[in-house]
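<backbone_tokenisation>
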Amino acid sequence: MGDHMRYRKVIYRYSMTPTPGVPRQFGELNGSGQLGMRFAQPGWRPPADIYETPSDISVTVELAGIDPDELDLVLYENAMVVEGVRDLPQADAAGVYHTAQIRRGPFRLELPLPAPVDPGSVQVGSDRGLLHITFARATEGR
């Protein structure tokens, strides 16, 4: 983890915002079978993968052009939130964009975790524009 990444853990569950008719992108958060719920996503949202093994949960976030040390990472009991800003160089005022597909400005990525994790086990690294976060699964009785 970078020396300046702001990481904190929170001991309560993350709340969801209902959005009628919009299925969740990452499956059921609480196993209740409710459909039509998803996290609220202000600003833009970078793509992410969540990969689970019997021993850990890995999250990979595509964050090209963003310094990992400028991110906020908050771990809840049931979710993870990554926030930051992508600032790209200003375009010349005399120029005209023909294509502008790279999202910029503030982002907030809210990801439900598929199982409880050990908050003391977090490992964070970055490589070629990808942020890698790995947690050990919480042991039974936690």
